[in-house]
Amino acid sequence: MDFEVITTSELRDLLPAHWEAGIPVMVESQPGLGKSAVTAQAARRWNATFWDVRAALRHPVDFAGLPSVARTDGHLLTEWAEPGFLPRGEGRHVLAMEEVNRAPLMTQNALFQLVQEGRSGSYVLPAQTGICALVNPVADGGGVTALSPALLNRWVHYTLSPDLDAWLRWAFGAGIAHPIMSYLRNNPKALHEYSTTERAWPSPRTWHLLSRSLDAQPDPQYCARLAVAAVGKERGIQYAAHAQVWQHLAWDLDVLLTNPRAPIPSVDGQGADQLYALSTAVAYRATLHNIDRVMELTGRLPQEYAAYIVRTFSYVSGDDGGNGKTAGLQLLASPSVVRWVAEHPELV
Asked: Which of 160, 175, 209 finishes a domain?
């Protein structure tokens, strides 16, 4: 096991522990995996104010603040106004330094003075400030420069990897288009396929962009164009074909979930795309009022898809608490779900 490589859910759990101990963290990953989003979520868990500094857009003097002239004891002295983009005030703070290894060397030095000394010029970091640097791999190019060993030795380091389960949990709570979730469940490698040669390629970020585009333009005739524009030609065309499956599900859920006596059609002969689409649709429609009927439908599916539905109830709960989480836990605790889990312990 590569203990340096970490998933988004693991990183979200570990960041507050490092910040509580006053230890700066450097997180490396290819673009599009959600480093910034996960750091912001961890800051909320730590009850901290989140400060996002784009290092590549800053000059060294920015960290000292704007100069002004003041008269002190008859002498004219230069004083510096504190930078407004850095943490200030009481309570906890998280300073996320974005694209540190794309910034000019002098800007890097100004940033790392904050890490080493907790100050830059007259500016002093608040006492309870967690620090996180977010960087891209040097091997990926694109203006990324290697940081010195002396600087690297002052941080703890993690490499972020794609995490489909964690992304699906977030996706259900964020309202990501259901066909995207079922497509990725059936094609997990498509979550993130980094490319240095293509303009558009799949990543958690671009799947989110596609979902937003589909919300804004739901006309099916544009689905393939929107998908290719967001995630590239190969995956975009595949996704558009999968999205068409959602127009012709084997079950009419509006009927089956409102009429307990309606006959349940067979799913024999349905392919993986159809079954993942159907399973996602069933899981997302589950409520405390219809859960018994949902589990009846679940029992008519092949076991691997039934298990997917039950696991998805935890996705519906989301990662950040709130009413959704309570509802998800109640679904998992309902008698019909508990009974199914007891009968199929090897599947969950």
From this structure: 160
